[in-house]
Amino acid sequence: MHNGGTRLPLEGVRVLELGNYIAGPTAGRLLADFGAEVIKVERPGRGDELRNWRLYAGDVSMLFRTINRNKKSVVIDLKSERGRELVLELVGHCDVVIENFRPGTLESWGLGPDELEAANPAVVLARISAFGQTGPLAERPGFAAVAEAMGGLRQLVGEADRPPSRVGVSIGDSIAGLYTAFGVLVSLLQREKDGGQAGPLSGRVVDVALHEAVFSMMESLVPDYTAYGVERQRVGGRMEGIAPSNAYPCADGSSVVIAGNGDSIFQRYMVAIGRPDLAEDPALRTNAGRWERRDELDGAIGAWTRCLPRAEVLRVLDEAGVPAGPIYTAADICADEQYRSRRMIQHLPVDVGAGTPAEVGFPGIVPVLGETSLPVRQVGPDLGEHTREVLGDVLGHGEQDIDKLIGEMEQRA
Fold it and tell me: How many alpha carbons lie under 13 Å from residue 204 in its C-beta half-sphere?
């Protein structure tokens, strides 16, 4: 697939995805977005469980359609001997294998690193799990919710006088997927720098633990603790130690986020809201002083925003050079010209259970290469949509053999 006549960066790279849910498929999606041929292996009958998550109508959720876009779906029973043989056959034609099963699962199916390396000595293996492939917790199962808790994130999300909350999306899985895709690219680059010469597979295993991926996003959480004994706490919409930066209600019932915590920005900010006295207060010239008086500052800012509609609040702050933005709903995002100008919402025809396909908006591809998002080539595929194509074109199986294999898998469904 081309974009404006230019080859996509990962064209020619073939990835075998042996994963369910969000983390592994997110890594596969990122690689597919930029041109890799990603072959997603799904179990007979049910496929990836994500197909039914947040399913409001139709047969396949928009969550699955989003996270598995630009991929091919092949149905193979990994637990069967014939399925094992097919997977190893596919590995011989792939550059990368991604899996996010509980450690030891692939090994129990005869698809562990030794078998994969025998099938393809140059393959890159990316493994995502709750706690990594080594260590005392390696064999323990866990989803992103647990990883977010043990990675330090949950302790900081929510109001100080309430239990920890979550952010509303499976952020731990998505972060792990990002790190996995990055690790895959690093390994492929190293392999290329080595002239395609492959050493032991152990040097090309990308081992991503969900809780470590979350922990890596926690900035100076541990350094602050080990250096100063500081245990950061939940502060709601604020960021600890930084002020004023918060969300504020407006007169029309909407809200805005205003980040006026820079020293020079703060002075312009206070003048804009009619509080030059705060702008001139010497005790508020540094962030430390503003943090000490954060409640007073938030009170002054909130008193101003509550008297104006959101559009007027944003206009005044924009003219003053104060970073601010609306808190968007899905409807707001769909109507926003900035998203539209960079093709960050792309409409594709999808079966939504209404009899005829509907034009559904999907997130564009990030990062932008050039001026606008690359095109989303297709939404997440139907279950087994590409089984016949992959078995024939990639593995070279004949029609009779493919018919037999598909029939056997349908019996197991």
Answer: 29
Q: Contact, 322 vs 244, CB < 8 A?
A: no
Q: What is the domain-level CATH number for residue 368?
A: 3.40.50.10540
Residues 250 and 213 in one domain: no
Q: Which residues contact 209 (CB under 8 A, 6 or more apart)?
A: 128, 129, 130, 131, 132, 147, 176
Token pair in block for residue 313: 């609040």
Q: Judge if 308 and 392 occupy the same domain.
A: no
Q: Rounded to the nearest 10 degrees, what angle do helices 310-320 and 263-272 cross at?
A: 130
CA distances, 250 to each of 155, 261, 306, 327 (Å):
29, 20, 4, 11
79: its two tokens? 């637990």
Q: Are residues 92 and 145 in the same domain?
A: yes
Dump pLDDT digits (tens) for 218-227.
999 999 999 9
**What per-residue string of b and e applies to 316-351 under the rule 16 or more CB within 10 Å gives b?**
bbeebebebebeeeeeeeeeeeebeeebbbbebebb
Going along 176-244, which residue ranges are E strands? 205-209
Active site residue 77: no
In this structure, the answer to whether residues 92 and 150 fall within a common structural domain is: yes
Say whether both 152 and 272 belong to one domain: no
Question: Which tens digits make up the pLDDT trace of 84-130?
Answer: 999 999 999 999 999 999 999 999 999 999 999 999 999 999 999 99
- As for how many domains the chain has, the answer is 2
Q: How far is CA 367 from CA 63, 213, 364, 375, 376, in A?
A: 20, 20, 9, 12, 13
Structure tokens at 110: 């005869």
- Two structure tokens written together for 377: 């080539």
pLDDT of residue 2: 46
Co-location of 49 and 192 in the same domain: yes
- 222 occurs within a structural domain: no
Residues spanned by the domain of 73: 2-217+360-412
Question: pTM of the full predicted structure?
Answer: 0.90
Q: How many CB atoms lie within 10 A of CB 141?
A: 11
Residues 153 and 74 in one domain: yes
- In the prediction, which pLDDT does 29 show? 98
Pair (7, 99) in one structural domain: yes
Contact 41, 16 (CB under 8 A): yes
Residue spans of the chain under pLDDT 70: 1-5, 196-197, 413
Does residue 14 form part of some domain?
yes
95 within 8 A of 124, measured Cβ to Cβ: yes
Q: What CATH number is given to the structural domain containing 267?
A: 3.30.1540.10
Catalytic residue among 33, 48, 77, 173: 173
